Amino acid sequence: MRLLLISDTHLPARARELPPQVWAEVAAADVVVHAGDWVDVALLDELEERSKRLIGVYGNNDGPALRARLPEIARVELDGVRLAVIHETGAKQGREQRCDAQFPDTDVLVFGHSHIPWDTVAPSGLRLLNPGSPTDRRRQPYCTYQTCRIENGALTGVELHQLPRRG
């Protein structure tokens, strides 16, 4: 099972559209995970239409229309892997311990908010992943997203992808 992880798209505020490379990943993915800050419901509609399966949550910049359709926290089991998605996890100091306490029955936690890619493992074995943003690099050198696979009940092949800088 191939997963695409994205967050903090901020459309159309930070970009007019998702980059073509990300849409190609949407087409290739079995599951698309969006960790919030969509900003416009149009992207949710388009991802629902173009994804085989979409798992998403709302973020702090998402208004009533998105909050009406998306949860604050999503929890699913994908081929034996317990996945949770939330937009914000707080400061980076102590993140692993906080998330261990908040998500005790979770194997992988996907989050966003900071626009800073993150890939660590908490003391319990919980894998924490932040794909960054494919449209707003903020103070990062590149816009980013992540892909990974679930094989035989385990998360494998987590990869951070950098997008070409726009003009």
Q: Which residues form runs of ≥5 with pLDDT under 50?
A: none
Number of helices: 4
- Outline, from the CA principal axes? globular
Helix content bin: 10-25%
Gyration radius over CA: 15 Å
CATH topology: Purple Acid Phosphatase, chain A, domain 2
Strands, count: 10
- Domain count, please report it: 1
Strand portion: 25-35%
Give helix and strand order, one letter per element, not per position: EHEHEHEEHEEEEE
The first-level CATH class name = Alpha Beta
Tell me about the biggest sheet?
5 strands, mixed
Mean pLDDT: 96
The span between the termini is: 34 Å
Structural class computed from helices and strand pairing: alpha/beta
CATH superfamily descriptor: Metallo-dependent phosphatases
| Gross CATH architecture | 4-Layer Sandwich
Q: What is the topology, as strand order, of the major beta sheet?
A: 3-2-1-9-10
